[in-house]
Design goal:
By secondary structure, this protein is mainly alpha-helical. It has a domain at 25-169. The protein is 80% helix and 1% strand. The chain has helices at residues 3-9, 13-32, 34-58, 69-120, 126-133, 137-168, 172-177, 183-225, 230-240, 246-262, 267-292, 300-314, 316-334, 340-346; strands spanning 61-62, 65-66. Strands 1-2 form a two-stranded antiparallel ribbon. Helix 9 runs antiparallel to helix 10 (246-262). The two termini are 35 Å apart.
């Protein structure tokens, strides 16, 4: 074997051990600090969304004049607050109706399963009746109340994070690059930070618009069919659209299952499946690629892996954050020569998402 080939096969056990320990400590820190890190990650995404909305408002010209920066920022903050208030009002207003409709859905579900069992010739399904009879609605509502209270507490913490990020955002790139003694590397690091911010802002802004369009069209379809709680399902579709791949499937499956339980015939169920499925297909495969273009250029396999990884570490929140975190990792790695191979592996076709500096 040639010396060069032998050198390729050699590896340093100490280096492997160091990387393994670093990876284990990092994952342990992410899991143990999830209560602190998840609100921080959400706050950073909201901060990027606020900056994206502000940039959009600043580009609007009325009579050849642009609005001042402070006004654009104020309008962006007010718009997000109004959206959050509207979401809260929709959920609260539908809570009593959902509680009243639950017994009806239970009866319809029992009738559906009994009819299915009769058609299949397998007799009754006692497990279903026992499950519905033993359902403790009080405990379920108590659990939901505790979950809502926890979300509200996190929301307050997120607002505090966002406020401080807005107050210090002008100094953040300089503060991050200042520890570098080499002025050239400091400038490259500052450019990398600005590039990460622009890419994530674009992703969050465009994904929010596309998800809002998907949720609104789904709401109109459900309202046309007559499905209960169409507004709630529209909101759910909006949020599920942030979860890659499986989110779109769940956004069709959940409303379709309720339609199956709500109506006595299969026609509404078929209409919902076809309508929501066509909406997801057209927006996800035609409109979204046309709007977002090649700005992400992420590998589908790596998206699935990121979804599974962050889902196992942070649960549902990790699934929502998986793609933004992957975008950040790809952009950061593309700016450093030693880590550029990571950005290539995360890309769809081997080309980097950004044009990195010649040297890092």
């Amino acid at each position: 074997m040639r010396e060069s080939d032998q050198r390729i096969l050699e590896f340093d056990p100490r280096s492997v051990m160091a990387w393994s320990v670093t990876l284990a400590v990092t994952i342990g820190f992410l899991v143990a600090g999830s209560n602190l890190l998840i609100p921080l990650a959400v706050a950073i995404l909201l901060w990027c969304l606020l900056n994206a909305i502000t940039g959009f408002l600043l580009r609007i010209s009325l009579a050849g004049r642009h609005m001042p920066g402070w006004l654009a920022t104020t309008l962006a903050i007010l718009s997000l607050l109004l959206v959050n208030v509207a979401v809260y009002q929709v959920l609260v207003s539908q809570a009593d109706a959902l509680r009243r409709a639950a017994p009806v859905y239970q009866q319809n579900f029992s009738r559906l399963t009994e009819g299915l069992a009769e058609r299949l010739g397998i007799g009754a399904i006692p497990a279903t009746g026992e499950l519905l009879a033993n359902l403790d609605l009080g405990s379920l509502l108590s659990w939901l109340g505790g979950s809502v209270g926890s979300m509200l507490a996190d929301f307050v913490l997120i607002l505090i994070y966002v406020a401080f990020l807005l107050a210090e955002q002008r100094q953040l790139p300089t503060k991050i690059s200042r520890p570098q003694r080499d002025e050239t590397k400091a400038l490259q690091l500052e450019n990398a930070v600005m590039d990460v911010s622009r890419q994530v802002q674009r992703y969050v802004w465009m994904k929010s618009l596309i998800s809002a369009l998907t949720g609104f069209v789904s709401y109109l379809i459900l309202l046309w069919v007559g499905v209960d709680f169409a507004a709630v399902w529209g909101l759910l579709v909006f949020f599920l659209n942030f979860i890659p791949n499986i989110g779109s499937m769940l956004a069709v499956a959940f409303p379709a299952l309720l339609t199956l339980v709500q109506f006595d015939s299969l026609q509404p169920f078929v209409l919902v499946v076809l309508g929501l499925g066509a909406t997801q297909f057209v927006i996800g495969n035609v409109i979204e690629p046309a709007v977002m273009g090649r700005s992400l250029n992420l590998s589908s396999f790596m998206i699935l892996f990121s979804l599974a990884l962050w889902g196992s570490i942070w649960g549902i929140a990790g699934m929502f954050l998986s793609v933004p975190l992957m975008v950040v990792a790809a952009i950061v790695c593309s700016h450093f020569r030693e880590l550029r191979w990571v950005a290539v592996m995360l890309s769809a076709d081997g080309r980097l998402m950004t044009t990195p500096p010649s040297e890092s």
